[in-house]
Amino acid sequence: MTRFWPFLAMIFLFSPTTTYAINVNDTLPLTQSGIGYIALIVFAIAYALVMLEEYLQLRKSKPVLLAAGIIWAMIGYVYSQHDQIEVAKAALEHNLLEYAELLLFLLVAMTYISAMEERRLFDALQTWMIGKGFNFKALFWLTGILSFFISPIADNLTTALLMCAVVMKVGGDNTRFINLACINIVVAANAGGAFSPFGDITTLMVWQAGHVTFSEFLPLFFPSVLNYVIPAAIMSIFIPRAKPNVVHQEVELKRGARRIVALFILTIATAVAFHAVLHFPPVIGMMMGLAYLQFFGFFLRKTLKRSLAKKAQIAIENGDDHALKRLGSVVPFDVFRRVSHAEWDTLLFFYGVVMCVGGLSLLGYLGMISDVMYNQWNPIWANIMVGILSAIVDNIPVMFAVLTMEPEMSMGNWLLVTLTAGVGGSLLSIGSAAGVALMGAAHGKYTFFGHLKWAPVIALGYIASIIAHLLLNGDLFT
């Protein structure tokens, strides 16, 4: 390792294309330098490994964390050589602050979702759907519609995994149904997440950046509906009406399950109030909401013995031995255990993306791209292209790049890029966290090529949603 840095230094200092003049913002123009080219190569390799996660079985956070460290180490070396390390340090701290706000926000949301899962809310929903005796076509529509309306609250990844569990349970060996149902779930979850700040990380980023307020997302509702309904209507033609062979099971909600849902709604309201009324980052309200859950967990622990004694007495009176055994396995609710169950790979992946994109921004590449896309192109076409790129690269780095560029756009265009980045990922299975997760959950039955065959149908919904937004919300583009 000690021999590596002098070698890099020679490349940077003696590269004939390297220029180190300081611009008006005290940053070094490094887009045509050795360090710039190497940073691009490092990021490209890291993201190639992310896209191959399913095949390599390598968690997506690992390559981007390493890439972020390499990129910023190179930036730090060059800036220190030109006595501009404070400029690089300020940029680094700015990106860390951006990440910290999103990390804490997502951590609280994931903790609540984990708590609901532990209290068996999702198991109860799954059992209810299976026990109603729906046929395959009805289940196709039911899982899709529920995905569309749950994802604005529970986020598209969690929603997709929940509905996929239902599909896998009822689908059995019917690979065709499972593949189509999973595609439907991915499209529905991504479309539902596009009109809510809580539905996807990209919408959350736009909301926290202050470009769109909470209520201003609502004009995207009808375009999002079209984005889901059009491909779903076409795919449903190929779903049989036969009924699956499943065994109905009873699921009993754990104590406090419904109250945790109420606390989550209160937490969302608190976050919105902090942002809309006090003009503070919404993460402050979310952290306050975590306190709600902590106090409720304290209440559940303190009253556990009394609750168990009451239920045991009822079970004894009814002669229910099964209920007595179940009570013996009850453990106290632990908030910090729920925190540990958060999707840490996703959170660390997001750190790597933020820092990599931030480094490329300091090198000057995002400024170049912004100039081409938002000054030389029509912003509408630029934002449509953002959605297509989201399907290939993943919407998180694409949206963070747009926010880092900070192009001058109307409200209509900010809503357009929010829509396209959210639903564009549905075009390919690797374009969104929901799609990647379902390829793992339904391994061998929902695949990249199985999704790709239906990409033209999904594209119809993508085009229709854009046209609907341009027609219905045209006054927002002025």
UniProtKB/TrEMBL annotation:
Its main location: membrane. Coiled coil: none annotated. The keyword Ion transport applies. The chain crosses the membrane at residues 31-52, 64-79, 220-239, 260-277, 283-300, 347-368, 380-403, 415-442, 454-472. GO terms for molecular function: antiporter activity. Keywords: Antiport, Ion transport, Membrane, Sodium, Sodium transport, Transmembrane, Transmembrane helix, Transport. It is found in: Membrane. One of its GO terms (cellular component) is membrane. Belongs to the NhaD Na(+)/H(+) (TC 2.A.62) antiporter family. NCBIfam families: NhaD_1. This is Sodium:proton antiporter. It comes from Vibrio sinensis. The lineage of its organism: Bacteria, Pseudomonadati, Pseudomonadota, Gammaproteobacteria, Vibrionales.
